[in-house]
Amino acid sequence: xxxxxxxxxxxxxxxxxxxxxxxxxxxxxxxxxxxxxxxxxxxxxxxxxxxxxxxxxxxxxxxxxxxxxxxxxxxxxxxxxxxxxxxxxxxxxxxxxxxxxxxxxxxxxxxxxxxxxxxxxxxxxxxxxxxxxxxxxxxxxxxxxxxxxxxxxxxxxxxxxxxxxxxxxxxxxxxxxxxxxxxxxxxxxxxxxxxxxxxxxxxxxxxxxxxxxxxxxxxxxxxxxxxxxxxxxxxxxxxxxxxxxxxxxxxxxxxxxxxxxxxxxxxxxxxxxxxxxxxxxxxxxxxxxxxxxxxxxxxxxxxxxxxxxxxxxxxxxxxxxxxxxxxxxxxxxxxxxxxxxxxxxxxxxxxxxxxxxxxxxxxxxxxxxxxxxxxxxxxxxxxxxxxxxxxxxxxxxxxxxxxxxxxxxxxxxxxxxxxxxxxxxxxxxxxxxxxxxxxxxxxxxxxxxxxxxxxxxxxxxxxxxxxxxxxxxxxxxxxxxxxxxxxxxxxxxxxxxxxxxxxxxxxxxxxxxxxxxxxxxxxxxxxxxxxxxxxxxxxxxxxxxxxxxxxxxxxxxxxxxxxxxxxxxxxxxxxxxxxxxxxxxxxxxxxxxxxxxxxxxxxxxxxxxxxxxxxxxxxxxxxxxxxxxxxxxxxxxxxxxxxxxxxxxxxxxxxxxxxxxxxxxxxxxxxxxxxxxxxxxxxxxxxxxxxxxxxxxxxxxxxxxxxxxxxxxxxxxxxxxxxxxxxxxxxxxxxxxxxxxxxx
Length: 744
Description:
- The longest helix is centred in the first third of the chain and has 29 residues, at 2-30.
- It contains 6 helices and 37 strands.
- The strands form 2 sheets. The chain has a 22-stranded antiparallel β-barrel. Strands 1, 2, 3, 4, 5, 6, 7 and 8 form an 8-stranded mixed beta sheet that branches.
- It is mostly beta strands.
- Mean pLDDT is 82; it is low at 1-38 and 718-744.
């Protein structure tokens, strides 16, 4: 019975989506001078990417960007190992440009950005040669831009939510999007703020128990100008993001103190156990600025393009932790310990990136038609960190690269063959203060190599919108800034040591994938990523001291099987003949989207079990055109995730959103409840290599929250104005119609 329902669902979905495309083509032939508005799809499957629409999905855009991302089917996001999508480690881009941050700094950045400022998210599972080889396994491209219209438009988005665990906490976000176009240029300004109060409870192997009261403040402004120069276009962009966060932590636990015994040769030590209670206050201040100039040369043949782009990014970060008090006693003689005040951490970092790239493409006569793309990139990065006045890391990287890629078609086959050549020159120094207060300086392990990164794809089109695709690419992932940073920028207690590793080596990936996709929504696929020197986090225990470190895994493989299937509810109540006559609009019908994925991390000398990821999203149209959206996400426990075993599921939450549109669809109001059963918790057991003592870690955020969001399109006085269609890009190389740079 289950197999029958599955087959009928797939066929029905295919007929419905094919019917929609057929009707769209007829309308396009009949209407010549009217702007066509295409309804966005919640999820689209392309040959090389999956596209998630945020702008029209209240259950995704009613909080901050990180909360919305965690709801995407197939995505796993954890505090211990970052983000993965369908078994591939993600490199995060913003509007087509890499953020160059990961881990807790990335989480803080995404928490400070309202989700209603995002248009869509593209997860590029098969980055071609035109993408930097440093994209690693896959790319998550967060696209915030809108189209610039021929009149002034303004859209306001607001959100309020609250949690009520140990006390009542509020979260608010507001953003405004303004854009217009005149005879000379188009412009856009998008700005907003995000204020959030939240809680974090942590238990680290019963040695450290803490409760953190967090206050986050995020501000952003994105501006863009575009000038049409005949067929050509000049684009100027400037973005700024500011996060200002405070954490107040009450902690208690056990530790061990190492005391030098005077007048002993060789030096001898005494070890004393103690228990403690402490109060700490931490402050983080991050400012990220980015300026981009793009010149797009266009030709009579729309498929021929030449783009020049120069970008400069500057990111500053400051982190301070002050101990308000620490009390306790030694367990051997009950001697009291009392320390009042003191600066524990005082760190800062400065990152500067400058790059220039050229991209060119044109059609060529090969087989039944094709295209050639080529280009180059030069990038220079400087990253310095400082701890209490000592510059303890100076990191420099220069990357020079070029690529060549061919696309061709032969009957029902589509081929892509390309390669990217990259030359890396990475160097730097580290400095530490030893026990005699002397500064010890060491050179980083240099990485000066020239490497080729080939990619190949073949796709067979079984029928209209149904295809089978096989892909291969070789990529590299350079160690992230946060992993290299020797400073602790999170929290330090009496028995915890958190450090980066400036000697991490780059990771080389070989990615293979086989995928069957039907009608944009339904798919089934298998992929494997083979990684050398994969960067991973380890947490180990030595006595009563906890160590959080970054290491390279010499060899590992990540196997991933996944499938997605839309199920219109009408298949249970209407005959197929009647469904075929139905005027289908995905925004107006009841349906369910099912996703299931299996992932296994294969690491030498580690017996990791695989885990399943399940996601169910249901849409039900209630009376008065009220839309109910329910989302359930679950990840099976007792499975291996890098050097950790999940004792409880990473994902186990139910979210519900009710949405109603008013005022001729200009006003959208949503009420929502996230994690209504309070099941979201992270509890893992570490499996440190080399036989170190394992650690049980438990983090619980106040994920259950309730709130209200609104989106209001302020009407224009121009009675003849009609809003332009905000159509999703179909390929990486399509025409860019927005002021803000699209991901290409």
